[in-house]
Amino acid sequence: QSALTQPASVSGSPGQSITISCTGTSSDVGTYNYVSWYQQDRGKAPTLMIYEVSKRSSGLSHRFSGSKSGNTASLTISGLQAEDEADYYCSSYTSGSTLVIFGGGTKLTVL
Amino acid sequence: QLQLQESGPGLVKPSATLSLTCTVSGGSLGSSSYYWGWVRQPPGKGLEWIGSIFYSGSTYYNPSLKGRVTISVDTSKNQFSLNLSSVTAADTALYFCARLSDLRWNFDYWGQGTLVTVSS
Fold first, then answer.
1. Chain A residues whose beta carbon lies within 8 Å of the beta carbon of residue B100
2. CA-to-CA distance for B7 and B28, rounded, in angstroms?
3. Please, how many CA atoms are within 13 Å of residue A25, restricted to the half-sphere of its CB?
4. A39–chain B Cβ distance below 8 A for any pair
């Protein structure tokens, strides 16, 4: 089963908004509202940010939001800050014997 | 506060079996609604789900690992373990243990990760 498809990199200037896409299939993103987003600093454990497509983890800034349309989920970060520079991964529940599948990850650079 | 901690050898020889243990503190492995499992990340690459186990012993594995994976749980020690057989250099990675919610299907708690290098 292939990984969910994410852009390898995105960038934006402080204060701007960016969106990271996560494209799957009807076996995962398109059917189930169990898309999550994780932030990871290099060499550290990922941190859960968004779950069930659009629900924020406790304490997460409202600058982060999630959505889904068809087979594609999206993470939007508004009012970009230097501290947002990190790698971002999506994941989804998937049908069959594989429980979850990850995206390939997106490196966010704040210019 | 739930905490997970990986332990095991940092260097494994090719064709050998990689064995890691995750010790859970601040909570019980016997809790329903959670799977306990492993995720790995090769250097410079993305996350890959390896497999997960329910406290009852039911297991799910990533088919891409072609039967090389075994995950087991010891509720008396509040630990679960990963065995990955016939390793090659491609199995060199940062290995994380993590809790997977079966209500929300997200990984909400993670260990800090342990680097395992496959080399002779």
1. 99-100
2. 18
3. 9
4. no
